[in-house]
Every structure is written in structure tokens, then in C-alpha cells.
Write a structure and sequence with these properties.
The protein is rod-shaped. The protein contains three helices and 52 strands. The termini are far apart. It has three domains: 13-162; 165-269, Sandwich (Immunoglobulin-like); 323-601, Pectate Lyase C-like (3 Solenoid), CATH 2.160.20.110. It is mainly β.
Length: 603
């Protein structure tokens, strides 16, 4: 059969020329031709003349490679034709012929011919290979055909076209990613009709260039489409519009991998047939996380990535986490990270982002089941720059600490915000807080809660902290603007304090309600102060009562009500900032005497 070379990757329209080599046709008369004298022989050429556009070439490299036989169908009869590659007249050509059972010209009338590759007695379905990472796998996934075309005796020609769509990914390093060397690229999110793969491993066709052939189909908007595995993380591009993968079209995506994921630098379709285009940015990042080389830090982009970190942190509570996008946990039940046997000791950096709809639904929790986004936070841990929005905690408990951000804390919680609902039942001898349930040392600073808290019969409930016990804690620059309903000690900032002297520059405008005979233990700043220490520049408004609900050892001072005369929000802001100090990371800022302040960076 001669030199047989793989074809597989063809241009958009491959031209095959039929030639009757047994005679000079101009010498033939009309009418019937003697059968057996004029076999149908096919000459296929790549048309590689310099002035010829690349899109008319027979194949990408001008060779018919890998096509050993093709199927020809005339009048419903299918025959197998051999392929022989050769060079002629400066063109790379292929001769298609059959020595054993050819078709014959019987007249000069046009005939209708269909042809296809790979060979089969019927035209096969397009079913590409799942693993196209090798050249053989890639080229072996192409399907070509010329369907029901009229062929003239004097000018026989068939125009072949691809039955597959071709995807080319040009991968580039972006911000925060020095190199994409060693990346694995897949095309995913594909339909599985006729047994096609949902994911295809691409062929590394050149330096940071990856290719795959797919069956024609539509990839829906926001479906994970191009997956890049690099540096222990998985990145996805999700198209901003439906991607219609048409037969014979080539889709080229230039994709930059950045520390924030995949950025689509450009999308053009050409080389085969122009099937349209799309441009935009890759904003969703698939598995949603990468892991640092030392394995200690997760960089998280999506809800799946956050859940992956949380699962890993259950086994290794020292794992750090940094968010790069807002995350919505709707429809997901959260399991607190860290408990009394494995306290969380890492750094969780919200990086200014928001986690919304974090939900915990628990019944009959008991000692050790500290409950919140974090169960128990250890002395070396840091949680910072995070907003929890629309938190939903519905907890039945017996004597445990409960807080939206942390059940208990001995580390540092800084610049965090909480909104949502906390509903607790059956928690006698328990602590409930809008930010933290209970503290045994540690720091809460520059935090705000607007949560609605129903503490049930919990002993101590506070807008920021349920209570602190045994050792001194630090609460500074915090505020509360939500509501609390409970049966025992209720405080705008803290439900219970042993050591009050480390509460500095805080305020509450929350709605406070104590439903029991212990209503005297409700305070605008602290519900129950066990020792008569002094707060520093703490204020409250919106509660018609004392700043400290009850103190069993003298009167606690340093808590003041905004009365519009002696103390306004303007004078309170000045006093709180003085107490926080000139080197405070954040300070309070207000626009007028009647408006509570907000935290801003200390400039």
C-alpha cells in the first residue's frame, strides 16, 4: 500500500480529487462506458501552493497520516479503499484506490458518492478517546466525511470535512503564578452521548499548548469546561455563554492561570472553520482551592474549596486558609472546625471576603461540643478580616459555649463581622455570643455583630461575647447592633465578665430583653460582672437600664449611656479612640453627634 501516515487532524475542508487514470477522458465519447475499464481512483491533495490559504490544506501538516483505508459508498454499496501517500508537483498527495474490488465508471453521468473515515460498513458515530494525551490518542479521535456529494466524470472531486470539534488551549502564567510548566489540562463538562467521555485528557501539542477533539455538542454557560491541575490545586474555566462545539470548528482559548484562578485573555475560533467567539474572564475556579508547597495553607475560591479545607482541618487543625472570593454556603450543613481534643491553631484569613448562609443545626450537644464556624480556637490561632453574613445556628445544647464565629476562643479574632440568627435551647450553664461563646484568655478586637440571638435558658448571652471565665481576656473596639432575648444574664457586649478591665472602646445599640426574674442581670454593656473592675470608654444606647446589670463586688464603672447631653456619639467616639490609642489598627468614625460610629482603618 506504500507509505501510510496518520491523518486524523484535517483542516476545515479537505479536498479529494477523483481521477480516472486508465484513460484520457477528452477522448471518450458520451453514453455507456465499458465496465471494468475505468476504475474509480481518488487523488487527494493538500493544495499547499504558497498563495493557498492554510484553511484549504488537506491536513494540518500537509500529510495524510494514519489513514490506511477509507469507506466509499455508491448507490448504497460500501467498499474499502486503500490510501497511499506520495509527493507530486510540489503537493503532498494521497492516492485512494482498490486493487481487489473497486467501483467502476459505467457512464459519463454524475454519480452520488459518500465517504468517511474511520472505515466501517456504515458511517460510525463520533466517539472520541478519553485519553488524548498521546499523539496517537489525539489523532485517533478525528472523524471525517464527505456526504452525498455529486461527482463529475470530467472533474471528480469530493470535499471532506471534520465531524469533530477541535479545542486548543494556550496556557500562560498570570499574576502570582510564575510558571505553568507541568500543568495537566483537561476538557471537561462534556456530554456522554454514544459513550463519549465526560472529561478528556488533552494532548500537549507544543510549549504550553494543549489540544483535544470532541463530539459536536453544547457546553452550557457556567459549566466547568477547561480544567488546569497545577501546584496541587485544580482551576476551572467556566464559560460566560453557551459554547456550541460545531463539527469542523476549531476553538482556541488563551488562558492565564493567576493566584485568583483562570483568567481568559482571549478566545478565538479559527484554523478549521470560524464558528464564533467569546471573550471574558474566568471567575469561578472549580475545585476551589490550591495548597501551598508545604501543604500548610489552602487558598480558597469557592464553597467546594472551603468545604475541602474544613474537612482537611478536622484531621489537621493547624491548616491555614485564605479566601480570595466571597462564598455562599446555601444548602450546606457546616461542621465546626476544632474541638476540645483538637483545637484550631492555624490562621484563617478572610481577606475582606464574606461567607454567607453558614448553617449549623445540632441537637443535644454536650460538654466538648463547642459550636460555631470554629468549635474551639487555640492560643496560637488567628481569625481575621472575615464577614459571616446570614448565619443560621439552630442548636439544642447542655452547658456548652456557642458563637457564630467560634464556640470558644483563646486566640485572636480581629476585624470580623456577623449577621444572621442564633437560636439556642436547653443550654443551662452555657455561654452564647454573637461573635464568640466563651473565652479563656484570648482577644476579640475590631469586631461587629448585628445578629438576632435567642439564648433560651443559657446562663450568659452577649452581643459580642457570651462570657469569659477564669483568666483575663481582651475585648476592644467591638460593637453590637442586633437583638438578644434570653432568660438569664444578658449584655450588649458580654453576658458575663470576671475581669472587666480589658474591655476597651466598645459600644452597643442592641435591643436587649431578659424574660425571667433575673432581668436585673441585663446591662447595656455587661450583664453580670463578677468582680468590680473598670471598663474603659464603653458606651450603650437603646436599652433603658444600667451599663452593668449586676456586679457582686461593688459597682463597675467606665460604661456610659448615650444621653444626648453629657454623652453624645461624637464625644463617645473621641473617648473610645483615645482609649484604643494612637497606634490602634482601627479607629471609630462618625458623621454627627446622633450617629453611632463605624470602624475605619487608622490613617
Amino acid at each position: 500500500m506504500g507509505n501510510r501516515l496518520p491523518l486524523h487532524i484535517l483542516s476545515a475542508a479537505t479536498v479529494l480529487l477523483f481521477a480516472a487514470t486508465a484513460c484520457t477522458r477528452d477522448d471518450l465519447g458520451g453514453g455507456t462506458l465499458p465496465e471494468g475499464k475505468y476504475p474509480l481512483v481518488i487523488r487527494a491533495t493538500g493544495l499547499q501552493a504558497v498563495a493557498t490559504p492554510a484553511s484549504t490544506r488537506a491536513t494540518v501538516d500537509g500529510d495524510w497520516q494514519g489513514v490506511q483505508t477509507v469507506a466509499l459508498s455508491v448507490g448504497g454499496t460500501v467498499k474499502e479503499y486503500d490510501v497511499t501517500a506520495s509527493d507530486a508537483d510540489g503537493y503532498k498527495t494521497a492516492i485512494l484506490s482498490s486493487d481487489t474490488d473497486p467501483f467502476w465508471w459505467t457512464s459519463r453521468e454524475d454519480i452520488t458518492v459518500s465517504a468517511w473515515w474511520p472505515y466501517g460498513t456504515t458511517m460510525p458515530d463520533v466517539v472520541v478517546k478519553e485519553d488524548q494525551s498521546t499523539k496517537e490518542g489525539f489523532e485517533g479521535s478525528d472523524f471525517i466525511s464527505a456526504e452525498a456529494q455529486a461527482v463529475q466524470f470530467d472533474h471528480p472531486m469530493l470535499e471532506f470535512s471534520h465531524r469533530t470539534a477541535r479545542i486548543t488551549v494556550l496556557l500562560k502564567p498570570g499574576d502570582g503564578i510564575p510558571s505553568v510548566t507541568g500543568a495537566n489540562v483537561s476538557v471537561t463538562g462534556l456530554g456522554t452521548d454514544n459513550g463519549n467521555p465526560a472529561t478528556i485528557r488533552t494532548y500537549a501539542a507544543g510549549s504550553d499548548t494543549y489540544e483535544a477533539l470532541t463530539a459536536p455538542q453544547t457546553v452550557k454557560v457556567n459549566t466547568p469546561f477547561i480544567q488546569v491541575d497545577l501546584g496541587g490545586g485544580a482551576y476551572y474555566f467556566r464559560p460566560q455563554n453557551d459554547v456550541v462545539l460545531e463539527a469542523g470548528c476549531r476553538y482556541t482559548y488563551t488562558v492565564s492561570v493567576t493566584a485568583k484562578g483562570l483568567e481568559l485573555a482571549g478566545c478565538t475560533i479559527g484554523g478549521w472553520t470560524d464558528g464564533g467567539s467569546e471573550s471574558g474572564n474566568a471567575t469561578d475556579l472549580g475545585d476551589g482551592y490550591t495548597v501551598s508547597e508545604d501543604g500548610n495553607t489552602y487558598t480558597v475560591y469557592t464553597d467546594d474549596g472551603l468545604m475541602a479545607w474544613a474537612e482537611a482541618a478536622q484531621g489537621n487543625p493547624s491548616l491555614n486558609c485564605t479566601l480570595t472570593h466571597d462564598i455562599d454556603l446555601s444548602g450546606t450543613e457546616w461542621e465546626p472546625v476544632g474541638d476540645r481534643n483538637n483545637v484550631y491553631t492555624g490562621t484563617f484569613d478572610g481577606n475582606g471576603h464574606t461567607i454567607s448562609n453558614l448553617t449549623i443545626t445540632k441537637e443535644n450537644l454536650s460538654f466538648g461540643d463547642d459550636c460555631g464556624m470554629f468549635g474551639r480556637v487555640g492560643t496560637n490561632a488567628t481569625i481575621k478580616d472575615l464577614t459571616l453574613e446570614s448565619v443560621r445556628l439552630n442548636v439544642g445544647a447542655d452547658g456548652i459555649p456557642i458563637g457564630a464565629l467560634a464556640g470558644s476562643n483563646q486566640g485572636t479574632i480581629s476585624n470580623c463581622k456577623v449577621s444572621g440568627n442564633i437560636f439556642v435551647t436547653n443550654n443551662r450553664a452555657g455561654y452564647v455570643g454573637g461573635i464568640v461563646g466563651c473565652m479563656h484568655s484570648g482577644v476579640i478586637q475590631y469586631c461587629h455583630s448585628s445578629a438576632s440571638i435567642q439564648g433560651g435558658n443559657s446562663d450568659y448571652v452577649g452581643g459580642v461575647l457570651g462570657g469569659e471565665y477564669a483568666t483575663a481576656t481582651v475585648i476592644k473596639g467591638c460593637s453590637f447592633s442586633g437583638s438578644i432575648t434570653s432568660d438569664n444574664a444578658v449584655g450588649g457586649i458580654a453576658g458575663h465578665c470576671l475581669y472587666f478591665n480589658y474591655m476597651t472602646g466598645c459600644y452597643s445599640v442592641g435591643k436587649l430583653s431578659n424574660l425571667s426574674t433575673t432581668a436585673y442581670r441585663t446591662g447595656g454593656v455587661v450583664g453580670f460582672l463578677q468582680w468590680g473592675s473598670e471598663a474603659t470608654a464603653c458606651y450603650w444606647d437603646g436599652f433603658d437600664g444600667e451599663g452593668v446589670g449586676y456586679c457582686n463586688s461593688g459597682e463597675g464603672t467606665g460604661a456610659y449611656q448615650i444621653d444626648g447631653t453629657t454623652h453624645t456619639w461624637q464625644t463617645a467616639t473621641e473617648a473610645m479612640n483615645t482609649a484604643l490609642g494612637a497606634d490602634s489598627e482601627y479607629i471609630w468614625e462618625t458623621t454627627d453627634a446622633d450617629t453611632p460610629p463605624t470602624l475605619v482603618k487608622n490613617r
